[in-house]
Design a protein that fits this description.
7-stranded antiparallel beta sheet; globular; alpha+beta; oxygen-dependent coproporphyrinogen oxidase; 25% strand; 42% helix; 9 strands; homodimer
Chain lengths: 296, 296
């Protein structure tokens, strides 16, 4: 499994996910933007807006290469003059506040055909936490992870709890998920197995999102629900711009702005010192996000 | 003029500005939140929402002190074990897209009663650039600055052009203004004079904002204007969370989140790869922001 195969499979994964999401949405379809990177490589950024279920969605594929920059050197902790990186990134912002935001990223990184590693993450950000849905989400991640190594889920779940956290708010971004980086053969699995793990996570994504949406009985959203959704989207923006390593690295190192910031939501709002009413659904969600939880 | 005097005058300045803005708005009034900082000092954060002219405004005063932290040491470039910092920060987000966003900050910093300096900045972010209004704004800043030192305006205007810039967008945040930091007696003015400069800038703020708003003939905003305002507010969020030194320093060093992020707008939006129509007012503004301009 070389870098060309991996990026070809990631591109297929992107198309597969888009197709599944279009089917789920039932109305909107993805547009594709193809771009090239001056230093080498490029990508296909697929976005959708104004769907029945998805208000704004982005599914991006890229495969880029070139000389290792000073900024990259600092972050990598490995020697090497040239790099290759490929991956798929997804963020879904649903229209209805009772549907969750969901994110995924799987990526492969290689330094001069020697060192390589995989990284990835999936996390779920409900506007309103539903414990049953959160548990179903984590159970699916655990099932896929356990097929490869039973140490993966607990380790990567804890990593996600640390990573998808807003220290300045004392809040988790959502109900977590899994996060991993620099995963290579030293964990005991072959390169092919690690790649298969990433592929399985990618293929799980639309299945799991469909489960999250299925069975949620929707009424026309109330003004209070929409206001809360806009505030939670504001938190999502804060996380991505202040804390998310991928976003910051991409922006500061001159990555393609529109592909990086496709993760930002439609209609976000900031209200000074907003505190939800005692015992409201909004307050219950906030309390939940202020602690760490085990789901399975 | 010692630190106690300076912070007392800054607190007066805050109240003066709030009164002037309330008079301009004609409907909404400021609420005050008083807070204390565990390590020493505190502040009064004054916010307003839902005005006739101002949709969301924040005018914050703080006076904090304590041990110099490792993160501060790195940023300061001066030795000292204890610090004192006081200042006033303002951001106005108007309701109407034909009114501009405006920001100001004046601040005083002291290390162990020895080294001290002033810093500050005012900048104007119209949703639609009006060259006459931008020129009037810069002329006012130049007039006040020239009373102290004719080198201030050109130097601080250029500093603002560099500072209020989004490299990942290749755009200025707005039509600029002035920005300065570490201003002390080495510039040839006394501490009292430098403080008077900051005070004059502070008192200028509501006068200049009133000028910006006066004479703008308002119609009910169109859907296109509101959509553009939401996109420009998105850029404002990007600047503050990705680039603004004060915001990032405050957030990463454990400052009071709500006071720091009161600068964030109501209702911001992100649309993938948005480009305004050829020759539209939106496109003219965008072209203007993609270059640097001299106004006076």
């Amino acid at each position: 499994m070389n870098k060309t195969d991996i990026s070809a499979h990631f591109r297929d994964l992107q198309l597969h996910i888009c197709q599944a999401l279009e089917q789920l949405d039932g109305l909107a379809t993805f547009n594709e933007d193809t771009w090239e990177r001056q230093e080498g490589g490029g990508g296909h950024t697929r976005t959708l807006q104004g769907g029945l279920i998805l208000e704004k969605a982005g599914v991006a594929f890229s495969a880029v290469h070139g000389p290792v920059t000073a900024a990259m050197k600092q972050q990598l902790g490995h020697e090497g003059e040239r790099f290759f990186a490929t991956g798929v990134s997804i963020v879904l912002h649903p229209k209805h506040p009772q549907h969750p935001i969901m994110h995924m990223n799987v990526r492969y990184f290689e330094l001069e055909d020697s060192n390589y590693w995989f990284g990835g993450g999936i996390d779920l950000t409900p506007h309103y936490v539903d414990l049953e849905k959160a548990t179903a989400f984590h159970t699916s991640l655990k099932e896929v992870s356990d097929r490869y190594d039973t140490s993966f889920y607990p380790k990567f779940k804890e990593w996600a709890d640390r990573y998808f956290f807003l220290p300045h708010r004392g809040e988790s971004r959502g109900v977590g998920g899994i996060f991993f980086d620099q995963l290579d053969e030293s964990c005991g699995l072959s390169k092919d197995q690690l790649f298969a793990y990433c592929q399985d996570l990618g293929r799980l994504f639309p299945v799991v999102y469909t489960q999250q949406v299925e069975g949620v009985v929707l009424q026309e959203p109330t003004a209070a629900e929409l206001a809360w959704q806009a505030l939670r989207r504001g938190r999502y923006v804060e996380f991505n711009l202040l804390h998310d390593r991928g976003t910051k690295f991409g922006i500061y190192s001159g990555g393609r702005t529109e592909s990086i910031l496709m993760s930002l939501p439609p209609i976000a709002n900031w209200v000074y010192n907003h505190e939800p009413a005692e015992n409201s659904e909004e307050q219950k969600t906030l309390s939940f996000l202020r602690a760490t939880h085990d789901f399975c």
